[in-house]
Amino acid sequence: RIPGIGGEVFSRAGGTAVSMPGGEIFTSLQTGVIDAAEWVAPYNDLAFGFHNVAKYYYFPGWHEPGAMLEFTVNKEAWQSLPDDLQAIVEGAARAINQDMLDEYTARNNAALIQLREKGVDIKSFPADVEEALRRFTDEVIAENVANDAMFAKVFASFDTFRKNVVEYHRISEHAYFELRDANQ
Questions:
Q1: Which of 29, 40, 41, 81 has the largest count of CB atoms under 10 Å?
Q2: Is residue 163 located within the same domain as residue 115?
Q3: Considering the chain, what is the average pLDDT of its residues?
Q4: What phi, psi does 129 have (nearest 5°)?
Q5: Average of pLDDT values for 109-134?
Q6: Which range (126-135, 140-149, 174-183) has the least confidence?
């Protein structure tokens, strides 16, 4: 079970991508309808009981940079709101997204430990698999950019931002965690 662009990449890599509601994943894994599933993160995977039907947990999540909430409002309805209410809604949406990120940061590691304790084997994808997924991802992205002007605009913005922040994160948070782990 992997929808969207990740599903396109997975298909190109030789898999059969299936899109299904989250509530059907457990039973589909249990009955063999699907062999694997992409879901949210360890915290959600544990809550859904996936460890009872899937004993391998692969990382990294090559298909998405991370979790975020989406809030969609009809444009005309949004524009009909006075500025103060728009500001309140924007602030609330920003706050709940940050709360979700904070909660996941706090709970995902504990859930990962519990998954290990329940017999789940946590493994990284082999380097050749990661490279193939990267190559197929680049192909799928390039095709979408060429065929969809809005996709191209959004991807250009995302990719520029990613490139502009990656170096800083390598020498800040990432380097800090690596240093702290090396000393323990």
A1: 29
A2: no
A3: 93
A4: -70, -45
A5: 96
A6: 174-183
